[in-house]
Design brief:
This protein is α+β, with helices and mostly antiparallel strands. It has one domain (4-354). It has helices at 7-12, 15-26, 30-37, 136-141, 326-337; strands at 79-81, 94-99, 101-105, 122-126, 156-160, 162-164, 169-170, 175-181, 199-203, 214-219, 238-244, 248-249, 263-264, 277-278, 281-289, 299-301, 317-321, 352-354.
Length: 355
Amino acid sequence: MLEGGTRRAHARVGVGVLLAAVLTACGGKGGEADASASPGVGTSPSPSPAPAPAPSSLMPSIDTSKIPARTAGFSVDRVISITEQPGASDGTGAFRTVCDYSHMAADDPIVYPRQPGRAHMHTFFGNTDADAYSTATSILSGGNTTCRGGTVNRSSYWVPTMVDTRTGTPLRPNESNFYYKTGYVVAPGAIKAFPQGLRMIAGSASATAANDIAKFSCHMAADTSWKTSIPNCPAGTELWQNIRFPQCWDGVNLDSPDHKSHMAYPSGNACPSTHPVALPEITFNIVYPVAETNAPLHWRLSSDNYPATQPAGYSSHGDWFYGWKPVIVDTWVSECLVKAVDCHSHLLGDGRAIY
């Protein structure tokens, strides 16, 4: 079940209360707090260049001079006490967070470690230092972050870059919403916290046909139903890219040769015996503004390696690399997911919130 239509309520629930608490905690004024609440734009080094496509490649060309500037991100923990309480849920537990765009690079520290420029262009969120040389240790302990909560969440999230094929322009997302839920199959009480160092991939960069792992939707439009390819969203709306990750872990491996086999999707009403440990279900929701009529007709993913006469977006996929402070994950897993309450996109469930 997808819940993109309710994102704005979830992502913004309690913002007024939370902002008031932030101002009280920080002793700041409204204008000052607003200025510090958004990650700033930095002048970090240029991203890894896009790899030269093979002669047979049908991936869209990218004008690397048009890559958006990196975001500086937060360098400190951002957690405060708050009186707001989690809300009722539909029987599942839910915690979410919001992360701003970080940077773009033709790197993939999971698939092509220590091989800068080897991958197709990716759009990164979260850890601002994520690159081809990133490791479990560097992700967890180094770098700023563009995520709510600051450095309590240095996780790295990345997806293939969305490209306007008319000009080769890589598109900067508005924002991204990352859901960590119990899912709708596994019992909330069975959910365990992520093991440190876990990483995984959902979807397939080599896909050339529709699948049920990655979908797209036009939000704020008359038709908000989910599609298996990039729809032509009307001007003034948002294109949402949704990617659902497996939540069942084999209990042993933090990665696997294909970066998928150590994880599995639930079977029936539980995790399969081969992957018995139930973890939070991660869902990426990447948001792109549509400013021009028919613009999405020209959009493709950087990994779409098939004829442009076919629908765009089949190669949608996501990569996730653990970077949360364990004590914070332990809190929202036990207080939000296991207790089957809705912690929106900021509550930790124990009287604290991230901002």
